[in-house]
UniProtKB/TrEMBL annotation:
It comes from Myroides albus. The lineage of its organism: Bacteria, Pseudomonadati, Bacteroidota, Flavobacteriia, Flavobacteriales. This is Large-conductance mechanosensitive channel. Homopentamer. Gene3D superfamilies: Large-conductance mechanosensitive channel, MscL, domain 1. InterPro entries: Mechanosensitive_channel_CS, MS_channel, MSC/AndL, MscL_channel. One of its GO terms (molecular function) is mechanosensitive monoatomic ion channel activity. It is a multi-pass membrane protein.
Length: 149
C-alpha cells in the first residue's frame, strides 16, 4: 500500500476528524475561559487582595529592580533573574476554571444520557400481535370447509 493512500485512509477516518474538531473547539473554549479569568474573576480577586493583577507579581532573585516596576521592566534589566510567580498563579487559575467547565459539561452530558436511557427503558413495549396457534388455524380451516358444503 502506498504511503499517500495509507495517509489518506488515516486522515479521513472519523476519529481523526472528531479529534480535529475537538482541538479547534477546545482552543476557542480556552480563549473564552482566559477571557473569563482575565476580565471577570481576576478583577474581583485583585480587589480582594489589593493588587491590580497577578501578572506583575514577581520576586527578583538576582539583580536590581525598582520598587513597583512592572514585570517587563524588571526582566528588561540586564543581569536580573526574575521569579514571576504571578503568571504561574494566573495559569493555575485558568487551568482550574477550564477543568471545572469541562467537568460540568461532562457531568451534564452524562446526566442527559442517563435520562435518555431511562426514558427508553420506561417506554411501554409495543406488543406485537400474537400469531394464531396451529390449533386455531386448523379450526378455522375446518369451519371454512364446513361452510363450503
Amino acid at each position: 500500500m502506498g504511503f499517500l493512500k495509507e495517509f489518506k485512509e488515516f486522515a479521513v477516518k472519523g476519529n481523526v476528524m472528531d479529534l480535529a474538531v475537538g482541538v479547534i473547539i477546545g482552543g476557542a473554549f480556552g480563549k473564552i475561559v482566559t477571557s473569563v479569568v482575565n476580565d471577570v474573576i481576576m478583577p474581583v480577586v485583585s480587589a480582594i487582595i489589593g493588587t491590580p493583577d497577578f501578572s506583575n507579581m514577581y520576586l527578583v532573585l538576582k539583580g536590581e529592580a525598582a520598587d513597583g516596576a512592572p514585570l517587563a521592566a524588571a526582566r528588561g534589566i540586564d543581569g536580573n533573574v526574575v521569579f514571576a510567580y504571578g503568571s504561574f498563579i494566573t495559569e493555575v487559575i485558568n487551568f482550574t476554571l477550564l477543568a471545572l467547565c469541562v467537568f460540568l459539561m461532562v457531568k451534564g452530558i452524562n446526566k442527559l444520557r442517563k435520562a435518555e436511557e431511562a426514558a427508553v427503558e420506561e417506554a411501554p413495549a409495543v406488543e406485537e400481535p400474537k400469531a394464531p396457534s396451529q390449533e386455531d388455524l386448523l379450526a378455522e380451516i375446518r369451519d371454512l370447509l364446513k361452510n363450503q358444503k
